[in-house]
Amino acid sequence: MSESFKLVAPPTAAPLDPGFRPAVLANRNFREAVEASGEGVDVAIALERGDGSVSVYRTRAFAPDSAQAGANLQYAERLVKFLLWQRGGYKVIVGGHSQIAEHFARVYAADGERAFDHKFMGGVYEQEFVVEGVALEDLPAQQDTTMALGRHLDGNRVGFDLGASDRKTSAVVDGESVFEEEVPWDPKNQSDWHYHYEGIKHSIDRAIEHLPCVDAIGGSAAGVWINSRVLVASLFRGIPEDDFSAHVKDIMVNLGKEYGVPMVVANDGEVTALAGSMSLEENGVLGVAMGSSEAAGYVTLDGNITGWLNELAFAPVDYQPDGPVDEWSGDMGVGALYFSQQAVGRLAPVAGIDFVDEPDLPTLLERVQQLHLENDERAQQIFETMGVYLGYTIAHYADFYDIRNLLILGRCTSGHGGPTILETAQGVLDREFPELAEQVNLMLPSERLRRVGQAIAAASLPEID
Q1: What pTM was estimated for this model as a whole?
Q2: Tell me: the pLDDT tens digits for 72-91?
Q3: Please, what are the domains in the chain?
Q4: Pick from 220, 204, 279: which is nearest to 449 by CA?
Q5: Inter-residue contact 17 to 348 (CB < 8 Å)
Q6: In 3-state terms, what secondary structure has residue 425?
Q7: CA 274 – CA 283 distance, rounded (Å)
Q8: Helix H segments across 313-376?
């Protein structure tokens, strides 16, 4: 970060991460400085997606000839990074500030600092990723749409959720789960697509054994899914590109044909939010699943979902200059490193927890959770640190979503971890964001729903003809 872009130490320090610098505090400090300077100008950022829909975000920045204009670049780059992973787009159009547009074009070029984002967004929308600068009046108009998702409870259904460390499956009859199972697997490190195909089919078949018949199958998984086709997903990272195109993109479509029933697969974050909305019988829900990575989804105030990506695992939440780096995207301070078992793995040695056998992350999480159940103060500090992260990040998310209910679930919230994270986050909101604390209900579902809620909600995705 440039010295001209001020980072703000949080009043509530993260116990195991004193360098944590919340995005929300830096962004708000920047905007206040712009207004106080009398040198602010309007800036708008439009993100265009493959279906022609457009999201527009409006903000303010220092004029290009201001002595403080250098701060614009850091603020705007982190802002666009967040918007890209929240809303998605193959084209970023900057209105009203050529300096910022030129900076984006360099940073998000195919050989730029954000080459990962350039390639990823181009792959998602199957078009070349570009950045353009235009006059403010020439910015395209907003054209966002929403759509209904799931909530179909009739008949005999299978629901599954594909995580990085396990597959969760439910057999559901008229909205009631009659069978649930979790099966460990390691999809990210497998190069043979048959491993994924056979694993998914095994879980579906196991659920079908507990139904008189199967009328529909619904699933959730990390990544970008459009019409049940996977365009990009960490679960399939190890598969060569040729095999991915030939066998994986349509893997769910082909499985649906094999079973001869309606089959719908959606992003796991969207299904998380749907699960929350269904269980609460309320809308305006942001769901955050803390598992092998961070998954997020949003149900609007009218009960629909957006056409956005909502891949907040790659959205920055911490601006500290020497923060942890995501091994896939190569970026620093992104959500996956703060709200997942990766966060537990990163914080455990800082807390003084080391295991001689160096277990994998799922096993390490289980051991830390067991220590927490035994009132180990080191484990307590890990989950309190994640709670501080969450409190400030909820305020950050609220600058981009209209939130009435925030639901957290996933493996990291099992045992005492979830209540500790939630209680700590609520304290941050109460002390530092009191208006937001009154508006947003922080929710933690039951232990059972935390672990298999996504699979049950996923079963409601298809409509039976």
Answers
A1: 0.87
A2: 999 999 999 999 999 999 99
A3: 38-144 (no CATH), 145-465 (3.30.420.40)
A4: 279
A5: no
A6: helix
A7: 9
A8: 341-351, 361-373
